[in-house]
Amino acid sequence: MNEEGFFEGTEKLLEVWFSSSLSDGKSDEARYTEAGGRIAGPDLRRIDRSLWEDLLKLVHCEIISMKSDKDMDAYVLSESSMFVSKNRFILKTCGRTSLLHAVEPLLSLVQSECDMDRVDDLFYSRKKYTRPELQPAVHQNFNTEMNHLDSLFDNGAAYALGRMNADCWYLYTIDNIGVLQPDQTLEVLMQDLDPDVMDIFSVEHSHSADEAGRTSGVSQLMPDMIIDHFLFEPHGYSMNGILPNGQYITVHVTPEPHCSYVSFETNVAEESYRELITKVIKLFKPGKFLLTVFANKDSLAKNFYKELSRLNCFEAYHRCDHEYCQFKNYNLTFTSYLRPPALPPR
Amino acid sequence: MNEEGFFEGTEKLLEVWFSSSLSDGKSDEARYTEAGGRIAGPDLRRIDRSLWEDLLKLVHCEIISMKSDKDMDAYVLSESSMFVSKNRFILKTCGRTSLLHAVEPLLSLVQSECDMDRVDDLFYSRKKYTRPELQPAVHQNFNTEMNHLDSLFDNGAAYALGRMNADCWYLYTIDNIGVLQPDQTLEVLMQDLDPDVMDIFSVEHSHSADEAGRTSGVSQLMPDMIIDHFLFEPHGYSMNGILPNGQYITVHVTPEPHCSYVSFETNVAEESYRELITKVIKLFKPGKFLLTVFANKDSLAKNFYKELSRLNCFEAYHRCDHEYCQFKNYNLTFTSYLRPPALPPR
Hints:
By secondary structure, chain A is an alpha+beta fold.
């Protein structure tokens, strides 16, 4: 929150997949010593919490809470979330954080601590900020973000989807075959939310994160999640839900009426996300929202883009834009929807 | 050509469809007096050549030649081409021209001379320039172009297709239902062309535009065209081909080896452009090329995007990017191809 009471809910989102050229084609897990008893071999979870904390200092955010299962460590941060599994790193930060300052240190950290020297795939994305001028220098416009990443990667590919003079969404990825296991990510980025729903996410209206999660319905979005969530003072809410096999959902709520923003993200594999998206928008009642769907060739969701391309409307919302990109291994769909203005009273 | 011998072949391309709210739903052609004997009713061809010349002064280019048939006036310009039909205006200009300076004057001219007060659709597009810093101020980056057009239109929608850190392509259009007759446009934008082919388009190698057109094969790209073309000194070539029913092809060649560029554009209606594109790339032998295909719901070409989405290669060229946008009435496909580097000699 800055002095004007404005908060930039829009997150910067980084997802990186690592591997080790040392273990190439060999079954050489034995070459690695056990670290901390739990983890052996090239694994991002070998990195000490204190080293993650150092990395997050560069971003200007910190760890609030952490929960784990056997496949993933999920962190709630002071500004959004971090998910660490064997070879996949996800960092999502909102506000005035400087996520890109962590990319090069992350690569060094992973190389030195986990012997993982290869970036198999990388995705940096964000919606256009509401107030770009309040961001740290490297994030003030997508050109500077792109130039920063171009200085780190030889095969970077930068895109803008949607309307550049409205709510577009930027992506920087690398032109690789990338991840060779089923993978998909759905994001629902919502603005202009229902004030009554937003009220739930304040200490004035809810006594705890549990209460806010239960009353709003966020905690029931998926069955059988390990939930870790936090209700900020005076308002704001973050939730991580851990599901089996490295699957997650994460929800972040910026309830301030003049800059309300909610993001929903998941990598849960589904053939169609229609039902899940419907649940999410019925819960939050946004005035407008964007969908982004990534799916690679082995993903259950690989044909969901066809369903989306036929939907001129989503519930009461009208589609504004629909774009589809084919990358080497992934397809990406961007769609934006708007609730038409209510008819004036007669 | 500037002092460094660099020429920006990349064109700015404007297409505007006009109509008259005065003739709305009425058969009121009689309300208009005959202008010049040939044209009655709301028709862009009622505009005097001298008024077009004044408009083109704002762009910093001039008319070199003109040919017509009953449906269209086609102009070869000192920098590219202009096509004027009853309700469609196309202006394509290369080099350091300032096309956007003509947009507002064009709207006024059409309103005052032709009683056409409505813009049914508008498309402004260009590839990323090779040397943006040499462009006039309004054209130096897409943000300034977008802001200029946003100042003229309430419902503008601006997009970037392809890689913003490589050869992307920008589009500004308006969010309208737009044109209600079959319409389609194909562009093939080529770079790094074969030097032997480029040699043909110089006065050193060809005695006339006719010879350059015939030797290169450009004149035979379509049967039965009315051809108007021009060979520039010392090199460079422009060609307009008029086909029945307001159809055209236009080809522009910048042959300088260090900045070679060729554009091919047509609105000829075809179910598949595969054969035509193959002809064009076999003729010019580019190192890389972009395709853009617009087709509206009534167009023969409306499903060509599906064919393109399946083509990972085009002849010997590998696909780099493939993007697809659905607008209210048009779909748009952007695809980029690269010739893989030749294997080193053994």
